[in-house]
Write a structure and sequence with these properties.
It comes from Acinonyx jubatus (Cheetah). The protein is an all-alpha fold and 110 residues long. It is built from six helices and no strands. 4% of the residues are buried.
């Protein structure tokens, strides 16, 4: 008779949760409504990022990483002022606070 320890039960449970959430994430990732809603106005950034991944897989890593970086910056350029604004308000260091507030600029997501 095989005895199952408590550690093995915890491992099986954790693995089960992990597999469930990975499959649920894949299901949500490929939902056509969410894809159309989220990426329609960000087609250029998405194309550059995924093109960079393909270029890296084709053994041109430097060019691929540059394309991925440009795509990443294109995708999240509207979110950077929000991050810099939060960091400027959250940090108590005078120099960094002034720097982050200057980087925040006038544009915001709201």
């Amino acid at each position: 008779m095989i005895s199952i320890t408590e550690w093995q039960k915890i491992g099986v449970g954790t693995t089960g949760f992990g597999i469930f959430f990975i499959l649920f994430g894949i299901l949500l990732y490929f939902d056509s409504v969410l894809l159309a809603f989220g990426n329609r106005h960000k087609l250029k950034g998405t194309s550059f990022f995924l093109g960079g991944v393909v270029i890296v897989l084709l053994r041109w890593p430097l060019l691929g990483m540059f394309l991925e970086t440009y795509g990443f910056l294109s995708l999240f350029k509207g979110f950077f002022p929000v991050v810099f604004g939060f960091l400027g308000n959250a940090s108590d260091i005078p120099f960094l606070s002034a720097l982050f507030r200057r980087l925040q600029g006038t544009s915001s997501m709201v």
